[in-house]
C-alpha cells in the first residue's frame, strides 16, 4: 500500500513539473507515508529550499536594477492614455472623440491619436482613414491625418480583414515601432487608445514612456466596474497618474417619448470613483448617433458639434486638460 501510494505521488509530482523535492505540498496526499519516507525526502526538501533562496537572490538582483528608464516620444509634449478594464465599454469611441474635442476646444494645439490595440485596431474606421503610411528620409512612418488629428494604427499596416495572429514578443515589437518609429512632428497631446485589460501592452507603455495621465472608461454595469477597478489599480502600481473615471453609456433616452432608461445601471462609476478616491470626469449617454457616426467614420464631435453628445465630449476634454500637469514649453 505504501509502495503504491509512493509511486502515485511520484507520478503526480512529475506531472506538475518536477521531482517530489520541488512539491512539498504533495506529502499530505498519502498519510501512509511515515517517518522513514519523510526522512528520505527531507534532504531533497532542504535542496529545494536552497534553490528557492538562490532564486530569490537572483530575482532581487534583477529588481534592484529598477524599471526600464522612461524615454519621451520625440516631439510629443504630453501623453494621455484612455484605458478600460473590459472590452465593449466604448473606450475607442471615447478616445477618438476626446482627441477631436481637445482640438476643438483649442485650435492652437496639435493632437495625435495612437491606436495601441494591435489585435483589434479601431481607429482607421472611426477616423475614416485608409492606406499605408509614407516613410520619411529618417525611416520613420508618417501618421495619416483626418479632421486635423495625426493618427497611427496597426490597422494601417495590415489588410482590414486580416487577423493579427502573433505571440507576445511580436506584439511588443510592433508596439515599440508604433511608439518610436513614427514622425509625430510636434504634438501638444498624444492620445493613446489602449487595448482592454491589464496585460503586456499596458505594462510596456506605462514603463517605457512618461505618461501625463490616464483615464478609465467604464459603463455603470457591475461586471464592467470590476475590471475598471483593476485598470485603475494597475496604473497606480506603475506610478501613472489616474486623472479620473469616465461613465459611458450612462443613460438611454427614447427618441420618441424622451423617457430615460439606465440600461446598465445608475451611477455605478460614481460609486467606484468614491471607493478609489477619484472623480468622474464625464458622463456620456448611450445614443444611437454616437454609434452611427463612429461607424461611418464621422465622429459626433465633428459631424454634430452642436449636439448634446458632442458637448459632453467637449466638457470631458476640458476637464481632462484641467487635471493634466502644466505642459513643458
Distance between the termini: 78 Å
Largest sheet data: 9 strands, mixed
Please tell me the CATH architecture of the largest domain by its name: 3-Layer(aba) Sandwich
Number of separate helices? 11
Mean pLDDT, to the nearest integer, reads 82
Q: Helical amount among residues, as a percent range?
A: 40-55%
Strand fraction equals 15-25%
- Rounded to an integer in angstroms, the radius of gyration calculated over CA atoms is 25 Å
**pLDDT < 50 stretches:** 8-34
Structural class, by secondary structure, is: alpha/beta
Order of helices and strands: HHEHEHEEHEHEHEEHEHHH
Here the CATH topology of the largest domain equals Rossmann fold
Shape: globular
CATH class of the largest domain: Alpha Beta
**Name of the CATH superfamily of the largest domain:** P-loop containing nucleotide triphosphate hydrolases
Number of strands: 9
- Overall tally of domains: 2
